[in-house]
What does this fold into?
Amino acid sequence: MPYVNRGPNNRIIGINSTPLTENSTWLEDTDLEVIQFILDNSNADSLRRALLHSDSQMGRVVEDLIDLLIEKQAIIFTELPEPVQFKLGARKQLREHMQSLTDLIKDNDTIF
It folds into this structure.
């Protein structure tokens, strides 16, 4: 069932249900290499969470990059597709609202 992709040392680096490249090879589910790969990668959930966290950070990088390009007039905001304009505007408003909420209570302020 699985198609495997191998790295430079001929070890399995990925398993898929369809071949990704012409070098993908098909192995049985019960193949010892397939089983070992699955066991070795049992921390996939933690890797997935790290990737999602990285994605959110990269999203902020892209937003900052777009803001910089607009500021430098390398791109014009109104020339971006309308859905992109809407998403960027919504994110900017959310950040502004979040900043105003965090400014309400400072570290040295007492609540009671």
